[in-house]
Amino acid sequence: MPLSRPGNAVLSPCPPIPVLPELGLPGRIPVARLFRRHGLFGLVATCWATASLSPLASEELVSWSAGLLYIAYDTWLLGFVGWKTRHLSAEALPVTTNALPLAILVAARNEERVLAACIDTVLDQQGPDDEIWIVDDGSSDGTAALLHDRYAIPPEPAIGVSSSLRHPGLGVLRKPHSGKADSLNRAWPLVGPSVILTLDADTVLHPRALDAIRHAFARNPSLAAACGVLTPHCAPAPLGTVFEGFQRFEYLRAFLARAAWERLDALLLVSGAFAAYRVDVLARIGGYQPRSLVEDYELIHRLQRHRHDHGLDWQVRVIAAAQAHTDAPAGLQAFLRQRQRWFAGFLETQFANGDLVGNPRYGALGRWMLPIKSVDTLQPLFGLTAFVLLVDLLTDWRSATTAVLWVIGAKLLVDFGYHLWALDRYHRWIGQRPGAALWAGSVVATLAEPFCFQLIRHLGALRGWFNFLTGRVEWFPQRRPGAPS
């Protein structure tokens, strides 16, 4: 039911949502089952265990073989991304963009401190036929008052749809609290446009970001899903500047990697904080999975599976000209909780799609992307094991220690060169020039990351492993109600 223009408060029942299959791994997961059903995972786990135990049998370089495996794998990934993205360049938007209408969905629960900035940047770029939906997931803060005072959206009904009396095409769908995935599922069947855009309430669009999305979907009928490029922003906090610096370079490299996998037609993630989908694609695959910890990641797995199973020409892309800022954790505990959930959701999705791993029927996705993701399931164990063995070698100097330090030095040089190259390539891709401060920050982050931020990231992933195996995963909000934005 498209929004009225302008509108009065109208009741609308929440539509029925297709029942999706179970993810297949609820509750506690016996470790033996992972080895039995997922051969590649078992092989990688065996290599890790063998390498980790090698110090008991040798004092030579092989005693750090777990570290060597980790370094070799990580270096190969850098080389792959570098090769695939070596020709990336900015794509200019036309002066006038096809006026493809969009339905922008912003799922929000207790986000009164950040919601206005998100809505305002959308309104600044709103097309004449766009719909903007704020999906209020049972907020208990001042969200209703904010929407009424700033955007003239009536605070009633308590459940249903209200339209703004001031901004045509802007409305709110209020519903009881049930999570982000279910909130989006309640909203997308109501929209009029054929393309929806999902934004987190703490995402702030750059100018012409919506034009870039319109242009991409209008010129490419095969485009099924896409995401913009996100830059993380941390709220003021004692460690906020440090965490923002590390996460900025982490996001930069991650989006460059997505561009590389896009060129293999094997992209598996569009960030739900800034993502776009064709409505008919969502309808065919059943919308979002409410039980998933990472609903955006899980959805693309089903999209790619459906595409290959039915011989469709659907494409998944990253739109470099569509840019935005989004909030990121500014403290250690919030960061660990986020990565714990992300990694547990990654494991949940990876093992639920184990039949795709190595399956040539699914093209580069089955032959390359998912096998590499199987290796990634144990990357935090490799990384932490390598660090522990390094500390052991340094505290008890052996014949292998000098050789290990040479290997680490060579790896740091490779990382340093790659990260500087990646900084330049990424900014060429998004059509910007990095300033001197960014270059300096990149140098510091590159040299410091392996000994601090990377270990924290691995620790969060290790906690995700524990939660996945025990079925004790919980979703934690990034901001507590009343916390500073």
Automatic annotation (TrEMBL):
One of its GO terms (molecular function) is glycosyltransferase activity. The keyword Transferase applies. Residues 195-391 form the Glycosyltransferase 2-like domain. SUPFAM superfamilies: Nucleotide-diphospho-sugar transferases (SSF53448). The lineage of its organism: Bacteria, Pseudomonadati, Pseudomonadota, Gammaproteobacteria, Nevskiales. This is Cellulose synthase/poly-beta-1,6-N-acetylglucosamine synthase-like glycosyltransferase. Belongs to the glycosyltransferase 2 family. Transmembrane segments: none annotated. It holds the Pfam family Glyco_trans_2_3. Keywords: Glycosyltransferase, Transferase. PANTHER family: POLY-BETA-1,6-N-ACETYL-D-GLUCOSAMINE SYNTHASE. It comes from the Bacteria. The keyword Ribonucleoprotein does not apply.
